[in-house]
């Protein structure tokens, strides 16, 4: 035991000795040679610059640029070169002299916001043009410690025409920074805030470069010690056709609403317009808080993409779905006739047909052609809400379509279970009657309606709408009986050739489709039209929803007709 | 359950609270340093400091658990633990993904641990039991003791993790010294080790390891490559001066050119910002901690515990000496973490577990006093 204790005491002596060696080493380094190292630290200043990667550019299907990068210049500098009010005053004076109105307070604020460490480079003045920068650098008084850095700025040549699709980029927020800390973002980085810019952020972003340089006592670059260049993000090609998109925006100009056009077989979206529009360019460059709140508080809600996030009663466009569900459930056949005398009395309530004089006897084709409400009231009651909901689920009503845009709404499929949960009320036959003509609780987005009509056009396959040209997903076959589907398609052809939707057929292509007029408790009724063309061998589907457009036949129909005609002729 | 709390409270009352206080103070100081160091690398300071404090919390709980279970139970399980450790080191050799050329991490889901850190505890337990059962007083038992340590050393060398292997050797050497090994044996070992160095440099070391040693001899030989770290680190420490530049005010140490400022070179960050005075306080706290550990061993009446405390003390001493020495160019760069201060969960957890063992030894000594 004694030997062990003596060995442990030996331990303590050795440790004491070794610690004394460390202390003397530190004394030598930090006190005896301190001056030398302080000087070395001062002259041997290393600085780090981070170069943002140019973002991948975005093009439409024909290579038309939709989002590109412009070069602009920033004045960069280090906190330790701007640490006195005199230096700031000097800088502000020079900036003013060249017509750049930046006060000392502005500079102080910028520095305070970005300062992390004295050697971390900061953006002192952003967004200068080449000319401005050249003038400044040529100025004899321009502080040599500051230096220009070229950076890219996102520009959207199409502006308002595709803003709802592309979205915009902006400086990363605290919350985004926290959520994506693993991905190597730092404060001041730009990130996609909405639209394609957001959904394809990880592809478009690229990877930032970095440079370590040695500077002299006055902050001038002595040499680059290490650099890895920024890698540009991947370019993205969209399925969008700018010609069709422009036309869609043009047609919507005087209205609030949305237009969607899509390839029926692949789900490629060729146009997706929402009105009113906004311009995404100023958002990228940074707008004032007041402008921003004006934009988001605008009662017309320009930032809402009505094509994917606007929910509307599908109204009579829903009758195509009703026909399919009822035929498939065998509650009607092609020859089933119902008579319309202008309304259906159910209990104490009279459910009117839009044509108060009545349609007389009709089968399903005639009912679609004339958009007879009473026919569908009866068919709906006969089929029953549960079977309708079953078919609704097959068509993915009430679910987002999965389009590659953020903020998509799923609409509402409603049904007995939903009503119980939501209102704690039983689903009544009156609800079913309303449901049968696409009114009441049922809500759909224009892109959902387009997807359903694409399935009717392509023989019962649910495509996934997408904008990335590489975003094709194999459609899901919902297994519709081809003969029964043919009956519905004949009905939709009749709508345009000799029924309520004839105005959609005046543009030289054979359109099949359905009008709709959605009751709007806040004002004029919404006008809808969903159609595809050519009717015999459908290629494209288009949907138009016009808020307060009154009748589907007069406003929405011609828009869809022109969209389809444009797509087929180009 | 109530018994558990009462006994835990008793244990805390009886144990060496001064030692634990030292460890906690150092660790919390470490969290602040990690924040400062992390601020330099892509602004990850808060993230790193937060994780480090979470690890500290886990470590303290682990220490209390080990203390509660007691060193006696742990020593009883020494042989199975040793076997388990060998298995884990082997698994790491086979499966672990390469992190910067060394495969020392083993992932379990999203949690990644370094088995080589926890192996230190298994080695200490195993050696204290083995060296008590077979005192290394004659050549046969001495060689047997060397055999016990050589297995884990070989396994970590395969990773290849020369730093850990070195720590294992130092721990074992310290334990052999404490176990009363005759000085002629120890002298022979040291002599053989020193004479093997040139051979090692010639054949066994990897290129980067050779570089580190050459750079240690002359940092200016590669001022922008391997020697750069040493020079930058020395400038950081030296420019700290007497009082330091102040917390978060370091300019040198936070540059990205000090590689791993939050792990390997944390001391450079510390001493640039807190200066000579700060270093003095830091080293005195380490000294106090090491003395308390050794005194616990002297106080204990159990041979195994004396050897055990020697193992823990050698471990902490060596990593501290090496890490501080490296940052002023006194020792070659090995990449060993500075105990309590360097960022790293596995290292901190293992150290606190070892302190749990020492705390338990102390309690036994305290109980006997009454």
Summarize the structure.
Helix content of chain A is 39%, strand content 21%. Chain A contains 22 helices and 21 strands. In chain A, the strands form 7 sheets. In chain A, strands 2, 3, 4, 5 and 10 form a 5-stranded mixed sheet that branches.
Plain-language structure description:
The complex is a heterodimer of chains A (570) and B (370). By secondary structure, chain A is α+β, with helices and mostly antiparallel strands. Chain A has 22 helices and 21 strands. The termini of chain A are far apart. Chain B has 370 residues and is mostly helical. Chain B is 74% helix and 2% strand. Chain B has helices at 2-14, 17-40, 45-69, 71-76, 78-95, 115-133, 139-157, 162-178, 183-204, 207-217, 226-240, 266-299, 303-327, 345-369, and strands at 106-108, 111-113.
Number of helices of chain A: 22
Q: How are the strands of the biggest sheet of chain B laid out side by side?
A: 1-2
Radius of gyration of chain B: 20 Å
pLDDT averaged over residues of chain B: 84
Number of strands of chain A: 21
Rg calculated over all Cα atoms of chain A: 33 Å
Approximate strand percentage of chain B: under 5%
Give the class of chain B from helix and strand content and strand pairing: mainly alpha
State which percent range the strand residues of chain A make up. 15-25%
**Rough shape of chain B?**
globular
Uncertain regions of chain A: pLDDT < 50 for 5+ in a row? none
- State the end-to-end CA separation of chain A: 99 Å
């Amino acid at each position: 035991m004694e030997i062990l204790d003596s060995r442990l005491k030996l331990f303590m002596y050795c440790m004491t000795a070794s610690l004394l060696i460390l202390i003397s080493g530190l004394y030598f380094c930090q006190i005896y040679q301190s001056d030398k190292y302080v000087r070395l630290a001062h002259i041997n200043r290393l600085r780090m610059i981070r170069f943002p990667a140019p973002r991948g550019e975005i093009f439409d299907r024909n290579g038309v640029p939709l989002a590109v990068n412009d070069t602009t210049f920033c004045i960069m500098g280090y906190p330790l070169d701007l640490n006195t009010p005199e230096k700031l005053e000097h800088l502000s004076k020079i900036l003013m002299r060249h017509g750049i109105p930046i006060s000392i307070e502005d500079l102080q604020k910028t520095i305070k916001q970005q300062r992390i460490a004295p050697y971390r480079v900061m953006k002192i003045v952003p967004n200068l043009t080449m000319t401005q920068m050249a003038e400044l650098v040529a100025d004899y008084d321009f502080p040599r410690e500051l230096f220009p850095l070229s950076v890219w700025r996102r520009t959207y040549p199409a502006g308002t025409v595709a803003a709802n699709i592309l979205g915009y980029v902006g400086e990363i927020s605290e919350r985004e920074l926290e959520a994506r800390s693993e991905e190597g973002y730092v404060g001041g980085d730009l990130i996609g805030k909405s639209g394609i810019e957001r959904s394809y952020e990880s592809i478009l972003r690229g990877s930032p470069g970095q440079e370590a340089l040695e500077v002299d006592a006055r902050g001038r670059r002595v040499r680059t010690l290490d650099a890895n260049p920024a890698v540009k993000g991947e370019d993205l090609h969209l399925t969008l056709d700018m010609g069709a998109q422009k036309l869609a925006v043009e047609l919507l100009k005087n209205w609030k609403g949305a237009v969607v056009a899509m390839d029926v077989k692949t789900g490629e979206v060729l146009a997706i317009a929402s009105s009113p529009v906004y311009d995404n360019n100023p958002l990228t460059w940074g707008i004032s808080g007041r402008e921003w709140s004006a934009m988001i508080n605008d009662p017309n809600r320009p930032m809402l993409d009505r094509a994917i996030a606007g929910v509307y009663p599908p109204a009579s466009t829903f009758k195509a779905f009703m026909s399919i569900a009822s035929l498939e459930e065998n509650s009607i056949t092609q020859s089933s006739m119902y008579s319309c005398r202008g309304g259906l009395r159910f209990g104490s309530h009279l459910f009117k047909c839009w044509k108060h004089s009545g349609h007389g006897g009709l089968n399903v084709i005639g009912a679609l052609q004339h958009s007879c409400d009473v026919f569908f009231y009866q068919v709906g009651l006969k089929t029953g809400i549960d079977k309708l909901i079953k078919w609704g689920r097959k068509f993915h009503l009430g679910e987002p379509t999965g389009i590659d845009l953020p903020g998509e709404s799923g609409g509402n499929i409603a049904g007995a279970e939903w009503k119980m949960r939501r209102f704690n009320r039983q689903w009544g036959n009156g609800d079913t009657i309303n449901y049968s003509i696409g009114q009441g609780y049922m809500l759909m987005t224009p892109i959902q309606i387009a997807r359903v009509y694409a399935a009717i056009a392509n023989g019962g396959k649910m495509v996934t709408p997408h904008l990335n040209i590489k975003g094709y997903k194999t459609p899901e076959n919902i297994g519709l009986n081809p003969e029964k589907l043919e009956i519905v398609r004949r009905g939709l052809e009749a709508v345009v050739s000799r029924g309520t939707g004839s105005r959609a057929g005046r543009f030289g292509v054979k359109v099949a489709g359905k009008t709709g007029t959605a009751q709007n408790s806040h004002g004029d009724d919404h006008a809808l039209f969903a159609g595809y063309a050519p009717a015999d061998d459908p290629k494209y589907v288009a949907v138009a929803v016009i808020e307060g457009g009154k009748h589907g036949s007069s406003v929405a129909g011609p828009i869809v007709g022109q969209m389809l005609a444009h797509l087929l002729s180009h | 359950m109530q018994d558990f709390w009462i006994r835990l409270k008793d244990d805390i009352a009886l144990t060496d609270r001064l030692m634990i206080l030292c460890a906690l103070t150092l660790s919390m100081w470490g969290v602040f340093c990690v924040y400062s160091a992390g601020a330099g690398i892509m602004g990850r300071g808060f993230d790193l400091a937060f994780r480090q404090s979470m690890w500290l919390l886990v470590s303290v709980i682990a220490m209390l658990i080990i203390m509660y279970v007691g060193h006696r139970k742990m020593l009883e399980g020494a042989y199975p633990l040793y076997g388990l450790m060998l298995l884990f080191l082997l698994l790491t050799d086979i499966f672990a993904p390469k992190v910067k050329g060394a495969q020392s991490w083993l992932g379990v889901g999203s949690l990644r641990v370094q088995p080589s850190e926890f192996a230190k505890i298994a080695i200490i337990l195993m050696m204290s039991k083995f060296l008590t059962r077979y005192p290394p007083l004659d050549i046969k038992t001495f060689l047997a003791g060397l055999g016990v340590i050589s297995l884990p050393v070989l396994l970590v060398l395969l990773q290849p993790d020369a730093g850990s292997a070195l720590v294992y050797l130092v721990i074992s050497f310290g334990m052999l010294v404490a176990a009363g090994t005759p000085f002629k044996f120890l002298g022979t070992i040291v002599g053989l080790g020193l004479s093997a160095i040139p051979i090692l440099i010639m054949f066994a070391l990897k290129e980067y390891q050779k570089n580190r040693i050459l750079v240690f001899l002359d940092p200016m030989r590669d001022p922008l490559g391997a020697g750069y770290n040493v020079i930058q680190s020395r400038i950081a420490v030296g420019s700290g001066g007497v009082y330091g530049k102040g917390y978060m005010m370091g300019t040198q140490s936070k540059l990205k050119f000090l590689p791993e400022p939050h792990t390997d070179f944390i001391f450079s960050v510390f001493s640039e910002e807190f200066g000579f005075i700060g270093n003095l306080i830091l080293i005195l706290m380490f000294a106090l901690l090491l003395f308390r550990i050794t005194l616990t061993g002297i106080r204990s009446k159990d041979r195994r515990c004396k050897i055990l405390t020697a193992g823990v003390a050698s471990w902490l001493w060596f990593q501290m000496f090496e890490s501080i020495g490296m940052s002023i160019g006194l020792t070659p760069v090995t990449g060993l973490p500075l105990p309590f201060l360097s960022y790293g969960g596995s290292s901190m957890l293992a150290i606190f577990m070892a302190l749990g063992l020492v705390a338990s030894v102390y309690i036994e000594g305290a109980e006997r006093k009454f």
